[in-house]
Amino acid sequence: MKKSLTVPTAAAVLLLICSLISAQTTQTELKGINFVKGDQDAVIQIECTKPITYESFSLLNPNRLVLDLSKIEKITAPILKEINDFGILKITSAAQSAETARLVVFFLGDILSYQIDETDTGLNLTFQKADKPAVEPEKVAAPIKTAVQPVREEIRTAKETPLTQTKAAAPSTGRVSDISISVGPGFYFFQGEEFETLYAKSATSIRGELTFTLPFNVNNLDIWVGVSHFAKTGSTSLYAEDLKLTWTTFSGALRFIRTFGRFSPFVGVGADYISYEEIYPSTFIVPSVGGSNIGAHIQGGVYVHINDALSVKGMIRYLSNTTTSNNFEINLGGVEYSFGLVLHLNL
Fold first, then answer.
1. Phi–psi pair at 68, nearest 5 degrees
2. Which of 20, 89, 182, 210 could potentially form a cystine with 106 if both were Cys, beta carbons 3.0 to 4.6 Å apart?
3. What is the CATH architecture of 179-345?
4. pLDDT of residue 248 exceeding 80
């Protein structure tokens, strides 16, 4: 009799645990972005699995409407949706933070007059034609003003009470933004025996870098440019006379980058312009000798994001660069390790 009571009780407890686990694993998902065009208006339908909250605002140059969707834990909608119709260029979507997705609507010209309506599982963005006549002439000026100065709309909450409001803000995924600036040290290891013999195996440089996304906003690709400089003292092998080497490198590369939580690994290929000068002692026939040349490099590294505006970065580059001076072939190539503190701008 005691055994027959224990089995139903255990089954009920097991069923309760499974229900709790199922409830906790249900995710709010951004699963679809649809564009429906009518005669006088067009609708962007944002489909999610649950009611959501959002914040919207507009930006200029280029003209775009931004929606930050809260409580989004998973994105299966297309990252980029080309429209090129009804005054709308395209729609992009990306994770802005751990539970926030950012949708950006890019316009071909001025920002269209729009209305945002909440649905049971998402939002409908309705845009009116730019040349649609207004009922009252004095109201025509209102859309023009919104195009000149960004207007932040009031945050509207869906019927479901968001649970995340009672929790601490989720850590940012550290998305690499449109423009970033980096400074830090670099360590250049010479390949050429002529430099390694006179100036040791490596030199420490100071570096500055600038990174920006492509103008046509191709996902996961960006342009990287950098400049580094170092001055290194050495000595001749025969009489131990003092020498000095100055070295400046200008670089550019096209990179592929992905973001996984707080980490953004990248790889890239590019070109380098290296200019160097060796300053000799007064006993030498010539006071100095130098040269310059264009070569190529490959690079790889990773960003570690502290927050949306600040990161640290590590990178390794292999440079191939050979020039000729006084009928001698000089190897300017080498391996460079660098680190930097990165400031992200223009979300």
1. -100, 110
2. 89
3. Beta Barrel (2.40)
4. yes
The pLDDT confidence band at residue 33, using thresholds 50, 70 and 90, is confident
What are the residue ranges of helices labelled H in the chain? 2-25, 141-148, 193-199
The Cα 21–Cα 346 span in angstroms is 40
By the 8 A CB rule, do 301 and 311 touch?
no
For residue range 37-78, what is the model confidence (pLDDT) as tens digits?
Answer: 888 888 988 888 877 788 888 888 788 888 888 777 777 777
The Cα–Cα gap between 82 and 108 comes to 12
Name the token pair of 269: 């290929």
CB atoms within 10 A of CB 165: 10
Q: Is 75 exposed, middle or buried (0-12, 13-18, 19+ CB in 10 A)?
A: middle
CA distance 338 to 207: 8
In the chain, CATH 2.40.160.20 sits at 179-345
Determine the pLDDT at residue 120. Answer: 81
